[in-house]
Amino acid sequence: MATKELEKKEARRDREVRIRPRCFVQEKPDGDILVKLEMPGVTKEGLQIEVDSTELRISGRRPEVSAAGGSYLVRERPRGSFYQVYTLDDTIDREKIDAVLEAGVLTLTLHRKESEKPRRIQVKT
Amino acid sequence: MALIRYRNRDLEPVDTFDWLQEQINDLFDFPRFPEIHGLFDRTVSPAIDVVEHPDRFVVECDLPGISQKDIDISIAAGVLTIKGEKKGENVSDEAKVYRKETWQGSFQRTISLPSVVDADKVDATYRDGVLRIELPKKEEAKAKRIELKGK
Which of 2.60.40.790, 2.40.110.10, 3.40.50.300, 3.90.1150.10 would CATH assign to domain B43-87+105-142? Predict the structure, then answer.
């Protein structure tokens, strides 16, 4: 019973899964959207960001864990690559998306199109 | 009415409980929640991997978005402690937060080490949000090959 349980657990861990990164999404006062995604272990080379007319796709591959020649004593970190898709609406400027990867956190800044930015209208007297 | 054998294998009550337990366990192992396995929330105790190599142990820990100076690693009496604090996001009052899955606050993880670890030669690096600690084994604990002498 106990060994069966363990084997199952191992099989589940070996399976490569698509991990949805933890996110933090906020809209700044000027209308820009800030997206932070936690992708520990992902390097600049393994990161892929694609944008088309409707979607923003982010995938981050992390290097294979260096368990070669050794054996796991504790294994809690999920295997697989990070993947997340966001749907973009027309107010986002596709040409102006900034991406910064630092300490395993990807920060995306999605700028609003200039025409869509909130603006204050001055009342003339 | 169909006759059912007294100890029908398909109706073994113990198996039914096994099945039920598996179902419940699977429920908690739901892998689509990022970095959460089972009932343990990975926010206060970050996920670690410990790999044993013939000459060393390697501990890897997922700590995204933490500055290096906020991580505190210590070894005392054969117990490795990874401690630290994760700073939160700076959100101005006017910003609208749509979704927040990230966490802030302090975390701690302790691992008791086998006595073969040489505590003086421990090496730690933090890269791309992953903390990696190398714990070499003591010289006398490393496997030695014994040659057979023929006559």
Answer: 2.60.40.790
